[in-house]
């Protein structure tokens, strides 16, 4: 007999889907209070997610056998966006092969070389902000993170090529992030998304532009001297000496775009939104940006990602029955270590809804209690890159402009597909 899924809200799937899309944080909190650290959410798309809210359960997942806790299958809803060769969708040896090839450009000295690109993009954008008028910081930061991806990841520098690639990317991404798009996708079986005509038509110009860039780069005479991620991937070799195919490159580039554009811009926006409601923290962060060693800025970034995680859950699918967090679960269960709930546990973070960067001044956060980038063998390979970019861009903003809130009221959380964003876009007035 198959093991049953844990109990959860008894509401119809349509009601749970609406709550998950429109009010995810209250929905998760109420379910957690009622059903405990392991509960099931049932959605209209036919998927049932077992939410895990305790660090011990998270540890069970992140340290478990990757062949049993399959992240690629857990992320299958992304197939239509990123493609079958994406590192998000690979499991087992295929995932390890791809990860070994993709990890080096995002760490160490190589990553530090991207600081100039990040700083230049931030300063160029900040200089355009009108003095004394409201700006939506999260939206403006999307311009910065997109330029960083186009230059540091895709390696595009020509102004004309940058403008055209930017136009195509925004045409697809802005449509993808519309609430109506999410609702339309939620009522369809994810298995059918790759053939969903509106999605294919929106991303076709992006695919064409990326493949044109891959073809140009393969023939570039300075390929072996370039430092952008695409050029490094073109030169990388698997253990058997083979290279990534064009299809693999396309899927990995789109994955990096999806993972590194909206998410980092949103995180910077949330950092500004929180700092504007906490003058003491804003003063310390500004002082650190101007004359410090960056430690307080780093703590601000980490506390922002704890308090306002951009993505509320990560996914795994069980290939075999397992006991997780003390609960017996059947094969085929979709597990969702819940970043949001773990980050707001009072037994881990006293006064968990307060913004206190000082939490992270004395040491690194816990492996199973701070999860904005997932964990285990599937931890986001761009995690160090994203944190580094947050510090560089936020530091440039605080050095160059004095900010104040448009309204003293904190911004509520809204949803843009999978990301949780400031409802008013992190509104600020810059002087």
Explain this structure to me?
There is one protein chain. The protein is α+β, with helices and mostly antiparallel strands. It contains 19 helices and twelve strands. α15 crosses α17 (295-307). A hairpin with a 5-residue loop joins β1 and β2 (48-52). The longest helix is centred in the middle third of the chain and has 22 residues, at 197-218. The mean pLDDT is 91.
Proportion of residues in β-strands = 5-15%
By secondary-structure content and strand pairing, the structural class works out as alpha+beta
Give the strand line-up of the largest sheet.
Answer: 1-2-8-5-3
* Rg over alpha carbons: 21 Å
Largest sheet: 5 strands, mixed
- How many strands appear in the DSSP assignment? 12
* Euclidean distance between termini CA atoms: 66 Å
Low-confidence stretches: none
Mean of residue pLDDT?
91
Oligomer: single chain
General form: globular
Which percent bin holds the helix content?
A: 40-55%
User: How many helices?
Assistant: 19
Q: Main traits of this protein?
A:
431 residues; alpha+beta; five-stranded mixed beta sheet; three-stranded antiparallel beta sheet; 12 strands; 10% strand
Give a quick precis of the structure:
It contains 19 helices and 12 strands.
